[in-house]
Design goal:
By secondary structure, this protein is an alpha+beta fold. Helix content is 39%, strand content 26%. A hairpin with a 6-residue loop joins strand 2 (28-39) and strand 3 (46-47). Helix 1 packs across helix 3 (88-100). It starts with 13 loop residues before the first strand and ends with a helix.
């Protein structure tokens, strides 16, 4: 596969791998590390492959979920879904990953499960949690 051509200035785009900044109306601006993308060195336009764009969207939802939980405290999953405004299957994927990363606590007690931020136990300076804390809280 040859490198794509920029739609804005017709120059060949260069394959890059690194941190990109994303600005979304619903979440605000956030950075995602290790993203494979194509960038035009003349005008700055970029193309992000579909697999990478899914990961970027998921990282944005994770960040937005953590911000909401930081503000709201413990809340029901139903309430969290309505605040975030995402599909239930997207929220389920986000909560599964955040639980695996030990960033949230899920309570299955009762009819309406609740979700809350997990207490921070690690002082590691790497990973998603430390980047999140350093940048947004």
């Amino acid at each position: 596969m040859s490198d794509p051509i920029c739609n804005k200035c017709n120059k060949i785009m260069v394959k890059k791998h690194g941190v990109i900044s994303i600005n979304r109306k619903d979440f605000g601006t956030y950075e995602v590390p290790g993203v494979l993308h194509f960038a035009c060195e003349k005008c700055g336009d970029r193309i992000i492959p579909p697999g990478e764009s899914n990961r970027i969207m998921l990282d944005g939802l994770k960040l937005h979920t953590l911000k909401v939980l930081n503000k709201e405290g413990a809340t029901s999953i139903l309430n969290l879904s309505s605040i975030i405004g995402c599909e239930p299957n997207e929220l389920d994927l986000v909560l599964t990953q955040l639980k695996k990363e030990k960033l949230i606590l899920l309570s299955d007690k009762g009819r309406f499960p609740t979700v809350s931020l997990a207490p921070i136990k690690s002082k590691k300076k790497d990973g998603f949690l430390s980047r999140l804390i350093a940048k947004y809280f």
